[in-house]
Amino acid sequence: MAMPQQDNYIEQIHRLEGMMAYAEAHGDWEELERLKERLRRLVEKV
User: Fold this and answer.
1) Distance separating alpha carbons of residues 29 and 35, to the nearest angstrom
2) Residue pair 10/39 in contact by the 8 Å Cβ criterion
3) 13-25: per-residue pLDDT in tens?
4) Of these four, 26, 31, 35, 43, which has the most CB atoms within 10 Å of its CB?
5) What is this structure's pTM?
């Protein structure tokens, strides 16, 4: 995998992790589950 593509995936993972932490801190469990699914799909690509 080319480095710029890998860097893009890493950046997306970090962004999703931050969004998940925010959703968890605010008790938005539906959003947290949606973000977990997005993260799972993204990690499968890597």
Assistant:
1) 10
2) no
3) 999 999 999 999 9
4) 35
5) 0.83
